[in-house]
């Protein structure tokens, strides 16, 4: 963890770089008072944040961002996530049990990195790599500090990225009471905290919105809530349970909210033909997935509602404290695994709308730190039309009316496409945002949020 001198030095260095850049640009451009360099100058500041909104595009490497940009707003266009004043990159590797690097991470190890500041082995949820001991998470520290807390995802609420905030598990598969085969010492019967679903509601996270109803419908097998489903356990703990857009929007901020919008992962917003060996015929994506049930809230609306609920919580039991909210666009990754470019682009666009919702809030509340990043890179590549990839590929017709070829070749056809070990983008605005500049590591994001909220 950087000490005060390191932090001050970095702030001074960052200010000098941006000031010098702005001076050069002033000679060559007529950018207005709110151009990118002026925004950067205004953003280079320390101070305390009242709120933090962390947005995670799962599997959203630079290729995935570029693909969504090219398809939706054009090669020269800009997404909402492109508009942050400060941008850097961070490394994403996991570790083996002995602490040596594992160069390609999964979402459990990567999420543990920013949630706890500690690297761990692939598959583990907020526990140490060798000794399998629980490590306090940024959400737990925020709760201890008196902040309202929330987690929003398009995956199951028990999936790896949301799990790292509110659970500690030997293996990410231990999502519900019936899923504990790989976590024998985590069971309530053995004196452990139980499944990820049980831990999430026991933590009394103020807002939990996502999929995974099937996990919460499982019955608790031991302890105080034995015989109840986890959903019933949540209701005993005071949660309002909502299941669609209408009930979500009607939820009040006087009680915690558990939103379960799908049995498993929330269905994607877009659909189309997956990539194929030898390519596909040129296609336009279907932007209204017929398999997405009516009344399923989109990620931007979930984000907006979560912020409203957390604001209500902070004015109630949390007094003058603010909130910490994590928002995950989960199926960028899941559609990348499936070599489904339309599903992947649609989920990136949906995530980008959630970024806009967060930035719109921060525009009215400048004491809010907003960070957007990814947990790891993924497989999709934009390749020349004349290329003949050995794996799966697809040709898309973009909104600009041009052909674009996407390649998926990190595994054999018929196998799940793989993560990559590349560094990924991190961008931010608000108090302590300067900490994302340069090349940092995933574990540094934990320190950035902790410093912004002044957590011990």
What would you say this structure looks like, in words?
The protein is of the alpha/beta class and about 450 residues long. The chain folds into 2 domains: about 1-45; about 50-275 and about 285-380 and about 420-455, Alkaline Phosphatase, subunit A, CATH 3.40.720.10. It is built from 14 helices and 16 strands. It has helices at about 5-30, 35-45, 60-70, 105-115, 140-145, 160-165, 195-200, 215, 230-235, 245-250, 300-315, 330-335, 340-365, 440-455; strands spanning about 50-55, 85-90, 95, 100, 150-155, 205-210, 240, 255-260, 275, 325-330, 370-375, 380-385, 390-395, 405-410, 425-430, 440. Strands 7-8-6-5-10-1-11-15-2-16 form a 10-stranded mixed β-sheet, with helices on both faces. The protein has a 4-stranded antiparallel β-sheet with strand order 9-13-14-12, with helices on one face. Strand 7 (about 240), helix 10 and strand 8 form a beta-alpha-beta unit. It is globular, with a radius of gyration of 22 Å.
Amino- and carboxy-terminal Cα gap: 13 Å
Query: At the first level of CATH, what is the class of the largest domain?
Result: Alpha Beta
- Helical residue percent? 25-40%
CATH superfamily of the largest domain: Alkaline Phosphatase, subunit A
Oligomeric state of shown chains: single chain
Q: Secondary-structure element sequence? A: HHEHEEEHHEHHEHHEHEEHEHHEEEEEEH
* Order of adjacent strands in the largest pleated sheet: 7-8-6-5-10-1-11-15-2-16
Portion in strands: 15-25%
Overall pLDDT: 92
Main sheet characteristics: 10 strands, mixed
State the domain count. 2
Going by helix content, strand content and strand pairing, the class is alpha/beta
> How many individual helices?
14
Query: What is the count of β-strands?
Result: 16
Here the CATH topology of the largest domain equals Alkaline Phosphatase, subunit A
| Rg computed from alpha carbons, rounded to a whole number of angstroms | 22 Å
| CATH A-level architecture of the largest domain | 3-Layer(aba) Sandwich
Unreliable residue stretches: 1-6, 16-33
**Global outline:** globular
């Amino acid at each position: 963890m950087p000490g005060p001198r390191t932090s001050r030095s970095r702030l001074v260095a960052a200010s000098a770089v941006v000031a010098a850049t702005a001076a050069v640009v002033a000679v060559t451009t007529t950018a207005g008072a709110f151009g990118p360099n002026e925004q950067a100058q205004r953003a280079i500041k320390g101070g305390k944040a009242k709120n933090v909104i962390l947005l995670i595009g799962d599997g959203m490497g630079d290729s995935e961002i570029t693909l969504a940009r090219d398809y939706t707003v054009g090669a020269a266009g800009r997404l909402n996530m492109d508009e942050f004043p400060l941008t850097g990159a961070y490394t994403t590797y996991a570790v083996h049990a002995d602490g040596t690097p594992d160069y390609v991470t999964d979402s459990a190890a990567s999420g543990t990195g920013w949630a706890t500041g500690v690297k761990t082995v692939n598959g583990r949820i907020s526990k140490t790599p060798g000794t399998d001991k629980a490590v306090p998470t940024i959400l737990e520290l925020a709760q201890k500090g008196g902040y309202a807390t929330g987690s929003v995802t398009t995956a199951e609420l028990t999936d790896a990225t949301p799990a790292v905030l509110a659970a500690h598990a030997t293996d990410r598969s231990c999502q519900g009471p019936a899923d504990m085969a790989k976590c024998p010492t985590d069971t309530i019967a053995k004196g452990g905290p139980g499944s990820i679903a049980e831990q999430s509601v026991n933590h009394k996270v103020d807002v939990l919105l996502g999929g995974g109803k099937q996990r919460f419908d499982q019955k608790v097998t031991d302890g105080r809530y034995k015989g109840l489903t986890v959903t019933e356990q949540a209701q005993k703990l005071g949660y309002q349970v909502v299941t669609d857009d209408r009930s979500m929007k009607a939820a009040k901020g006087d009680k915690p909210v558990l939103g379960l919008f799908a049995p498993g992962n929330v269905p994607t917003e877009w659909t189309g033909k997956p990539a194929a060996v030898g390519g596909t015929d040129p296609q336009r994506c279907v932007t209204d997935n017929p398999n997405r049930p009516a009344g399923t809230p989109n990620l931007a609306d979930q984000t907006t509602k979560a912020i409203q609920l957390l604001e209500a919580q902070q004015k109630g039991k949390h007094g003058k404290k603010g909130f910490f909210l994590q928002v995950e666009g989960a199926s960028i990754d899941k559609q990348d695994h499936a070599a489904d470019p339309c599903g992947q682009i649609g989920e990136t666009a949906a995530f980008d709308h959630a970024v806009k919702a967060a930035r719109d809030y921060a525009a009215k509340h400048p004491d809010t730190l907003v960070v957007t990043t990814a947990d790891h890179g993924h497989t999709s590549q934009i390749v020349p039309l004349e290329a003949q990839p050995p794996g799966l590929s697809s040709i898309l017709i973009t909104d600009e009316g041009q052909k674009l070829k996407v390649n998926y070749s990190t595994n054999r056809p018929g196998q799940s496409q793989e993560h990559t070990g590349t560094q990924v983008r991190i961008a931010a605005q608000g108090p302590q945002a300067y900490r994302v500049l340069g090349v940092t590591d995933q574990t540094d994001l934990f320190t950035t949020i902790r410093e912004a909220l002044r957590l011990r």
